[in-house]
């Protein structure tokens, strides 16, 4: 059964660039566009910035250098430098509460207008352009009119609403599991390190996990335990466990899996307290405000970055950055040792050597069939293999900075983002610190 629902909406906000999603990609896009002199509004459905890096409690950065060069140069490097100085990060470990404040400081310094608890619900199109984006918040439902829109939603919501094509999951439509990360108090980290059981790559931990499953202490036959990270002097963050069978585009699936994984986290709390040295007095202080989602829609752009490009360490004439994280595809279903072996097969051996990386072409930010939208972050145009590399935080900073810069520059040059000359964009990105070794200004 369907109903027709009509309502007159006010155009509540006007801006040059409207960014949807305040995860790492959206933050970088908003800052970049604002620093180019455009008025920018950033809309986020949650009550904080940072997305996976804060609300989901993802505890660590994946590689941000190739061993010689900072790959997320510019805004990404600035975030890392300021995070190290403020304690929002220690090395690659993320202190989520401090990182939220750092993100907000940088957004406000750039002049970005932020609107939390504000959810995109629709768009109104004019030809192949988004004319208005429709949002809902406590004040009601309203429209936002902008010249350019950046989809940093993670799920590609904005681009899909505008009519862009997309792919999702593997050949059967299955997606990688999510993870409900957690904050732990009362851990004796020194004792834990002496215990010698750290992650799924450790034989001691594997033996303990197998026994816990056999004894019924753990209900899920999953030995891919990413492990624990010391994220402050007093807090440890757990990147566990897998949430199999999740559909991040279905609210009932997300709800059921959040409920299930809070229960699974309690199982792991008992397991760690009774089985792992240093955790006798530990307890989970909080689980993530949102599920850590690894995979959702991949918007189809003017080019699809693919596994062959990854293997070739490809270079592109229009590249806006380079990256090097491994192809990290987590098995879609639990399966004990077999699933763990499958993950290692996908991931181990994919590492680059020092100084190696693959190029990211500007075309992957430009969704097909839409003219005034750019994508950034997990939803950019890749195949599944490269998405499993580029989806992580430094990769999101790279594509976000490029998308925000391109959005602002296309306004200044009175052209669509697709028509913006790549060389002009590259010149500005390089001036702003982006790592573009194959481009000379």
Task: Write a brief caption for the model.
It comes from Oligosphaera ethanolica. With 441 residues, the chain is an alpha+beta fold.
What does it look like?
By secondary structure, this protein is α+β, with helices and mostly antiparallel strands. It has 2 domains: 11-170 and 295-331 and 352-431, FAD/NAD(P)-binding domain; 178-287, no CATH class. It has 12 helices and 19 strands. The strands form 6 sheets. Strands 1, 2, 5, 6, 7, 8 and 19 form a 7-stranded mixed β-sheet that branches. Helix 1 runs parallel beside helix 3 and helix 2 crosses helix 3 (96-110). It starts with 10 loop residues before the first strand and ends in a 10-residue tail after the last helix.
List the helices and strands and how they pair.
Elements: E1 11-20, H1 24-35, E2 40-43, H2 75-86, E3 89-90, E4 93-94, H3 96-110, E5 113-115, E6 119-126, E7 129-137, E8 140-151, H4 157-161, E9 166-168, E10 178-179, E11 182-185, H5 189-195, H6 203-214, E12 227-230, E13 236-239, E14 242-243, H7 251-275, E15 283-287, E16 297-299, H8 307-312, E17 319-323, H9 336-347, E18 358-361, E19 373-375, H10 384-390, H11 393-412, H12 422-431
